[in-house]
Batch of 3 targets.
Target 1
Amino acid sequence: MNQSNAELLSKHFSKEEIQKTLGVHIDTPGVATQQKKLNNSAETEWEPPIPFDEKSLPPFPSSIFPNWLRAYVEGVAESTQTPIDAAAIGAIAILSTALTKKFYVSITPEWKESLNTYTILALPPGNRKSSVFKALQEPITAYEKEERERMEPLVSEQRATLKAKRKRVEQLEKDYAKNGDNAILSEITTLNAEIDSEEILTIPRFITGDVTAEKLGVLMAENNERIAVLSAEGGGVFSNMAGRYSSDGRANIEIYLNGHTGDYTPIDRIGREPILLNEPCLTIGLFVQPEVVRDVPPSFDERGLMQRFLYSFPPSIVGYRKIDPESIPNEIKNQYLTNIKTMMQLQTGEPVKLTFSQSAHKVQLDLRQHLESMFKDGERLADMKEWGGKLAGQIIRISGLLHVSEHIGSLSPGNPDISKIPTEIGRESLLRACLLLDYFIEHAKEAYGVMAIDETAEDAKHLLKYLVQNGKQKYSKQDAWQGTRGRFKTASRYDMAINELEQRNYIKKIDRNTKGRGRKSYDLLLNPMPTIPSIPRNGQSVDISRITSNQEKDPTNNLHSLELNNDSEKINSRNTRINRKQQETYFKPNDSKGSTNSRNSRDEFLGYENKNDDGSELI
């Protein structure tokens, strides 16, 4: 990771502490370089390819989670054959859904952070986003169903009682109008006071999806000013924000802006009472296609909505998935279901204030100073000041989520006592959250790049990927068209992609020796050492069936109970193996001095040599 990040952590943690907190080691083979020669076209001279400025984004460090949650996140990734980022980002949204308005973090008397988060994970279609969401949401949807069944008779009874009282008031008002009896007036006054003082019961809701801004306000007003917008197909949510159902077609994003910060939000409604939200706390967790991020209205960025999101752009592993993956062990799944339900059952009149321990307080001061230095000209966040300005608060929110999730297993399910959660966040929880700095910074850069993406460049990457993966040196233009026509609906778009690759020195057009009249065709000759974008990155192979769940015997909650396997001759991408020969073809040689690959610089982030005693690389 980044050298300045290493300095931040090494101020507060020794090598042994960080190693203990990370908990697991895996051997991640380095990226092999390719030294092919063009042996069938000796007369052809090649210039080095001009990259698409696409770098390998860091994978989500699942070691930030406590044992029970990490085991489930990695189990979901294995069973669904999806990037671990999907389950991890989804897990953050689930924690926020369960804990918002129950805890908050107080940094100074004037500054506090609630535990709600806004997250976006972008993956192309066919990546089983719905399966991941379903696995993560299961305990919340089950609890919501239980609460609905419990509350429905109570709500019905209250409605009947209030209806009877209102009818009684109507009759008494008629009687009073006839004779002006003061006793009748007294009864009217008493009944109205009873009606007004009644706390209206509602069927609880914790999750919603594709709703209008007005309906969202109603749901929040009925549910203690909190709710989560969670969707595995989040494009519809952005369409609603943009005013799909509004009468004038105008965007209405006030509740989304204020729901992140907890600012007062009045919602005026024609012909009905206004909705007044004093401190709304909205959680948003969306899985979308990358095009959704690209197509958001400029006003969303201009008004600061997109700067409230944490982004994840993992590579798709479609085409490299196991056909018969392992299922999640019942022990791991049951622990997840129990702990999330326990979080949902926590009851509190007012949110519990969490503060930092003395040592953690020093870390958060350095964290903020560290981020402040990134806003200087030429530094990492110089061009993303508004998004980066919220990052310290985002990391602090996640540290609060991790802190509660570390201790939730010590509470009794069914009737958990919220007072048994320690109110002081320690160094370790903040360290775990700080390990996400590089991840979210690099993925946010990718998100902001996608927002201004060049469609021709994306087409060219798609064509280049096809040419290299099929392993041939030369293709006819027609053959390459046939192989990629699912993307290229017009010849002009296909030609533009070819021209883009030619300009970047990835291919050359070689005229075919054709005779007769008609349009001349050509072949595509591939540069011997191309760079292929968006191929699944190196990863770790996790044997989830060997994860122990005996957390109560592990008070430090380090993560040595995970058994991770490595095959020195294979590279794994979310438990999907690519052999070295394929790796040499698919992965860009990483020999440039200015590389920003987070895996290669993780030793710098942690402040110690990134090697085990046997020479293998630390996680």
Note: The longest strand covers residues 281-288.
Target 2
Amino acid sequence: MLQQSGAGTPASQKRSANDMTPLEAMSMCNESFRTSDEFLEQLNKTGSFPDETDKTPMCFLKCYLEKTDIISDEGDINEPKIFEMFPTLNSDATEDCKKEMDHSNNVCEKVYFLVRCVMTRLLVDGRGSDNK
């Protein structure tokens, strides 16, 4: 999903409605919310960050998802964009993962809980598609 060194892939060249590629969004968000490649690799491998108390990488995710139009500034999910990013994800999984956002009042945590749920379904459970 997220790798700061992912330049050159077709997905990293697609521009969002904000006219920003995912790689540009990552770079911009990393200026405000420094997040190491190790944290992002851990998210990609396990579905969660190694330290779930550190808000900085959570705010990095929020910034990235906003800049790439996957979520709105209000935290609403842009379903066509999330399905474009994760083609095997279905609307049932998305609805379930939206509920995870209710577990916090902190906006960065809410986005992290959403991403953690999506990544867990895709990487660990394999329930992103019709396997639910």
Note: Residues 5-12 have pLDDT under 50 and may be disordered.
Target 3
Amino acid sequence: MTTVSLTSDYTLATHDTSSKMTFQDLTSGLKNLSSENTSSIHSLPVEVLSLIFNTAYISVQSNFDKDQQLALAVSQVSQHWRNIALHTPSLWSNILLRTAWNYELTEMCLFRSSLHPIYLCIFSDKEEYPSCGIELDFLQELIVPHLPRCRSIKFVSNYIRTDHSILRTLFLNSGSIFYPFLEDFYIECNVRHLQPHVERSVSPGNNAPKLRHFYLDGERLLPYTPPLKNVTTLHLANMKDILDVIRHCPLLETLWICDAYTGWVDDRDPYEHSSLRSLHIFGSDCVSKFLLYLVAPKLEDLVIPSVSFRDLTVLHSCTDVGSPRFPSLKSLALPLTVRDFSAALALAAHCFPTIETLILPYLRPRDFIEGFSQSIERTVFARLTSLAIREVDTKGEAAISELVLRRKLQGCPLRMIFVDGSSYQNSLLANLGTEVEIKEKDLWGDIWQAAGYMI
């Protein structure tokens, strides 16, 4: 399939949709066109201009960091394009405040977006604001009235003087504001000691019926959150109130926890999260305590890269082989510490006996084989049919071949091995023949990439 694009000499050309124009290509090209009165674009029919506008917008839309530059650029090309831009509220729906807030531009975009749902993104930084009072008045008068129109809200702050006051101005009344369009809510505040502290927990209402994705990074942020009743995906980092937050999410399906403080899991009674299916814990020394607290009968996917042998012993001592704690668990990502790899792998097999896919980011051949040989009376990971590994060398190939043969003799054969691209291209596992299918897919790389903004 081909689309129409603008080239540097202002003629029309076709290109494959797989090579999309960059942001710089489009904006610079369109602005140059607007300054060329002799350009042939001024003689093009309205229909052609409309086609160029639509295809250019579609071809670059996914590459934009949600801001106003596209709308500003296309409105300068020709009068017809300007009319289209001015009468298309969705083009002005990205409200971005960063690098010295532009009050006039923000006001213009809010006006031109009409009643269309907006995407609000605010970055607060020490070097950018001469007066905290000015920005707070601006937020109160111009931004707060438009909060009910937000489809997405993102607030990022690293400045101790402004972030708490801005949060109070924007979100202290979140519990009473109706958010009919809000789908994503994101607050990242790296300040550890906010004063004064507002004593208010998560709002119990249903004022955000479409809110599904929620990200909270920092302490004492709960008073500024909208109701979490309908949240299905939750990302929490650098906070102590994790249990309080997840208790307000009865529909929670996916939970990510990163850099949780020591002691964030206390001696509370176990709590059931009946809809939870995926759990990722990065950077915590309380993995076992949290898993003992959590009752999740539908949990299918577990990622615990920070777990250690010492941590797993806590869960192991409370796990009955005949009654798995997570009966539906199918996939486990387990980047264990090098020193205790084999012993911890055996503990994990005891704690999570139902898994079918094991994901390991690295492979120490000797410890790998020892881990699968720890138990004499039973097969380690008896239901295991898939193994995901990466960076396989010749020693790793030998270890995997031995494991494949061992499990075949035990009557629990492996069916699939996932490897990263470089391992697949080297064809190191070709000697396995038809015993097991080798598939190129870096499962651990996908997990790490998805968690990149958290860790």
Note: The chain has a mean pLDDT of 78.
